[in-house]
Amino acid sequence: MNTSAVAVGEPEVHGLIESKSPSRLAWERFRRDRAAVIATFVVLFFVCIALLAPLVCKVLGINPLTLDRKALNDYGLPNGPFGAISRKHLLGVEPGTGRDILARLIYGARISLLVGFVSTFLTTVIGVVLGIVAGYRRGKVDAVISRFTDLTLAFPSLLLIIALTRPFTQRLESMGVPEGNPARLTYIVLVLSLFGWVYVARIVRGQTLSLREREFVEAARASGAGHWHMVFKELLPNIWAPVIVIISLSLPGYVAVESTLSFLGVGLLPPDASWGVMLGDSVKYYRADPTYLFVPGIALILLVMAFNVMGDGMRDALDPKSDRQQLG
Amino acid sequence: MSSEVLLEGKNLVKHFPHGTKGLMSKPDGLVQAVDGLNIVLRKGQTLGIVGESGCGKSTLARVLARLIEPTSGSIFLEGQDITHVGGKDLQLLRRDIQMIFQDPFSSLNPRHSVGEIIASPLRIQKIVPKGGEKPRVQELMDLVGLNPEHYNRYPHEFSGGQRQRIGIARALALNPKVIVADEPVSALDVSIQAQILNLLEQLQHDLGLSYVFIAHDLSVVRHIADEVAVMYLGKIVELAQPAGLYSSPAHPYSKALLSAVPLAEPRSTHMRGRIVLEGDVPSPINPPIGCRFAARCWKAQDICRAQEPPLGPAKSLLKPEDSLVACHFPENSN
């Protein structure tokens, strides 16, 4: 990104100085950032577990839906200390049903991450396209897109999301989306993307505006480059660095928002679980069974933190001159 | 001045609407960046254009390179009107006029390797050179004094002077007839400036190029130009051959600019006398009536503020016939 990077003195030396592309340099900087590397492994760990949920559960001999009455006492609470942690239930059981918490956590990661990844993908695509169009075309197009962005930002999105759940999920169901949780998840993803793209679009627009003033864009135009070449060859390669940073920083945001929505009762319905559903459920038992509250809570904090540290590392690696306060 | 005319601008005007923000607002006024000027570039020669920052030099460069369309007036390349060509014709025209830019740090895409940067005009124009793209690019790199082995390197690995050489190689890739150089050395160290100027002269000599050379420094233009146009606030105030211009500037503004050029012998600066202009260039939004330089001119009289002096032959015995000046009271006149 930063053009004023250190220039190698006199490359006239016929030594074997390896030539490094900007992305290669970024990768090397990232590898040196220990916290970011560890965080990346944590993220990968969660992603693998989520992808391989059925296999992992099979190996551990647990099932998220099996009820285990024997693990509960007469009051329906886990029969034993720390939420009845035992060899059979490594993280204890759910009060009331006796379902294995670890299994639910693993399957919950699937849903939390699915919502996070799909929402991030949609917001990124919409945001990059509209941001580039606004920044590149400027003028009226930019004014329209920017006003639309402001309008979206001004919406009380959380209230709207909660209020519109019922009519919209019903609408989705009538459009052929399977009833129940699939429709509810689709709704959450769509609505998060609908409000989320503005953040991407704003940053991409700003980047595009500053890039198109650079002389290399003019140089391409002086050679007769069309819009296609301009956007894909000149602008996009310089925009993907900040976009990757936004992605890595906004993904944990969506995971957290999904949990919030599920906690508030907008998200999934039992017996399926996401981390937010588990948190919402556990609050009912927090006096009698605090372990149940801590397990999904700590998992959520760990995942969100790992994503954030990884995102910070990516930003530092891709844009060494940027200050930590600039983007996040 | 006998060689044939290559590039000609007639009554070129470029006005920018000023103060358009948002959807509804109407422009507050017009920035008259280039306001009716005529220039001629002859084949194999260099036309220098000098002036302060904000006098419209860069706008003129971009109008001549057809990066922005003039508000009015016309541009001719080898006698053909290219003012409003578009589409495919414009695409072909790009091969004949290329640009060299001011800032070697912003003029190269940091994500592309040197080879890709120099080859990009060829790729955009869908030209496959004889013998392939890579040999051609390496030939160009050699031509501008870069090591062809550095084909795969990235711009951040080069110094400012080397980056400017990359920019020059890119401008040469299409074998253009005209190169418009917009302050190509003003962002470089003085020692590097000389190298780049020598390179440009060498290339002109070897390839028969014609340059429109923009600068804000008269001493830079002196070396390279066959003819110098001094610009002030969107107008040409003096047009002369460098020898005449430097020995006896006719316009007070040229004289002031010349007095700012540092001399090798500092004591002689005192003898020459330094003219320090007061105030700034007036706003090009509402340029003054009459002579645009009148507000800062020490010789200005009532007529200067009322009537704009036309660009006409300098009535001076010291000047060659074809030098022109726009002043009511030119220097050295008798």
Please explain how this structure is put together:
- The complex is a heterodimer of chains A (328) and B (334).
- Chain A is mostly helical and 328 residues long.
- Chain A has twelve helices and no strands.
- In chain A, 69% of the residues lie in helices and 0% in strands.
- Residues 1-15 and 323-328 of chain A have low confidence and may be disordered.
- Chain A is globular, with a radius of gyration of 24 Å.
- The two termini of chain A are 17 Å apart.
- Chain B has an eight-stranded mixed beta sheet with strand order 6-7-8-3-9-10-12-11, sandwiched between helices.
- Chain B is of the alpha/beta class.
- Helix content of chain B is 30%, strand content 22%.
- Chain B starts with a strand and ends in a 9-residue tail after the last strand.
- The longest helix of chain B is centred in the middle third of the chain and has 18 residues, at 190-207.
- Chains A and B meet through helix 6, helix 9 and helix 10 of A and strand 6, helix 3 and helix 5 of B.
Topology:
The complex is a heterodimer of chains A (328) and B (334).
Chain A: H1 22-32, H2 34-51, H3 53-60, H4 81-84, H5 101-137, H6 139-154, H7 157-174, H8 181-212, H9 215-222, H10 227-263, H11 275-282, H12 290-318
Helix pairs in contact in A: 1-12, 2-5, 2-12, 3-5, 5-6, 5-8, 5-10, 6-8, 7-8, 8-10, 9-10, 10-11, 10-12, 11-12
Chain B: E1 5-18, E2 29-42, E3 46-50, H1 57-64, E4 72-77, E5 80-81, H2 87-93, E6 97-100, H3 114-124, H4 133-143, H5 160-172, E7 178-182, H6 190-207, E8 210-215, H7 218-224, E9 227-232, E10 235-240, H8 242-247, H9 252-259, H10 266-272, H11 302-306, E11 312-313, E12 324-325
Parallel strand pairs in B: 3-8, 3-9, 6-7, 7-8
Antiparallel strand pairs in B: 1-2, 1-4, 4-5, 9-10, 10-12, 11-12
Helix pairs in contact in B: 3-4, 3-5, 4-5, 5-6
